[in-house]
Amino acid sequence: MNEMRNAVTDKFKALVVTKENDVVEHRIRQLSVDALPEGDVLVAVNYSSLNYKDCLAVFGRGNIVREYPMVPGVDLTGDVLSSESADFQPGDKVLLTGWGVGERYWGGFTQLARLKSEWLIQLPEGLEKLRAMAIGSAGLTAMLCVMALEEQGVSPDQGTILVTGASGGVGGVAVALLAGLGYRVAAVTGRRGTDDYLYQLGAKQIVDREDLEQQSRPLEKQRWAGAIDTVGGKVLARLLAEMNYGGTVAATGLTGGAELNTTVMPFILRAIKMVGVEVTTCPIPLRKTAWARLTTELPGDVLERIYKVISLDEVPHVAEQLLAGKIDGRVVVDVTL
Ligand SMILES: NC(=O)c1ccc[n+]([C@@H]2O[C@H](COP(=O)([O-])OP(=O)(O)OC[C@H]3O[C@@H](n4cnc5c(N)ncnc54)[C@H](OP(=O)(O)O)[C@@H]3O)[C@@H](O)[C@H]2O)c1
After folding, report:
1. What is the rounded CA–CA span in Å between residue 53 and residue 121?
2. Whose CA is nearest to atom 11 of ligand 1?
3. What domains are there in the chain, each with its CATH number?
4. Does the Cβ of 230 fall within 6 Å of ligand 1?
5. Is the dihedral of CA 73, 76, 78, 81 positive or negative?
6. How far is the CA of 204 from the centre of ligand 1 (A)?
7. pLDDT digit string (tens) for 170-205?
8. Whose C-alpha lies nearest to ligand 1, atom 25?
9. Nearest protein Cα to ligand 1, atom 48
10. What is the pLDDT of residues 273-322, one digit of tens each?
11. How far is the C-alpha of 300 from the C-alpha of 249, rounded, in Å?
């Protein structure tokens, strides 16, 4: 452990985003431990992941980064090197998702991080670090959405569950989780080239995103018992009008737009529900439950199909592609490469 500590803390690599005179730049820098912000746990990071938000942060878009210089990366896993917290000991394998890390506080695109212990959880038993980052905030969000549907009484016998943005990170894990739990899943995608991938994840039906972008009447034909929406905008407006009587929508994303132009009709005439799902500051007990379920309920072979691994140097290029909608599934960043 000491050798590892010395090797990493002498000099380590991080992707740093700076802003000067309104110009945002990102660069891989060699830093020393003194450069790290305050915190009570020092972690040798192994993996981070690339979420939609991280891509915006790398290019200084979308008002994600609240303070410069910033190390983006909302997720990370690694080993504790030293700790002033009684909750963590050197050698512990830890996991962090959210809490403003990579936005307000330095995040996971680094080989070394100093963090607040209240953000960390122990890596769940049976979950490898790489797998945890293949799941990441996106997978945690997908699990929280599934749990939100369950809490509202949505069950597999009630009919088809619609997942939007299905070829993306949150959507892909949501399709796989729901299919694994016995739900019939319809996957909405704007990229029909991903049909095979979506069927492999467990989707039984593919819906063209364009069909759901059509303006709808206040009430359309009832089609869905539940929905996990990562897209917002026109798609969410339309799917609300297509929900079965008593159905629930878990809403968690806005890749298609933050606005929602709808009516109260599906709510007051079909008793539908819409539940917001938030992952960044989700309380620790709920996180632990969700991670425990992700460890056991997400089939390993399915997860293998969802993610690819890149190095820290590849982050800007892949982030550009992800923002252009050209990446399927999840991207893990191996910061040690
Ligand atoms: N990742 C997280 O930790 C997390 C957590 C909470 C919330 N969210 C939110 O959930 C959303 C999805 O996140 P993600 O990480 O899954 O992103 P992602 O991997 O980039 O996937 C987003 C998917 O949305 C669809 N899409 C892209 N542009 C669109 C457009 N203009 N209109 C409609 N659909 C579009 C695409 O799927 P198709 O081509 O298949 O249609 C794309 O693959 C984002 O708004 C994000 O902020 C993410």
Report:
1. 22
2. 253
3. 2-123+306-334 (3.90.180.10), 137-276 (3.40.50.720)
4. yes
5. positive
6. 21
7. 999 999 999 999 999 999 999 989 999 999 999 999
8. 165
9. 138
10. 999 999 999 999 999 999 999 999 998 788 888 899 999 999 999 999 99
11. 27
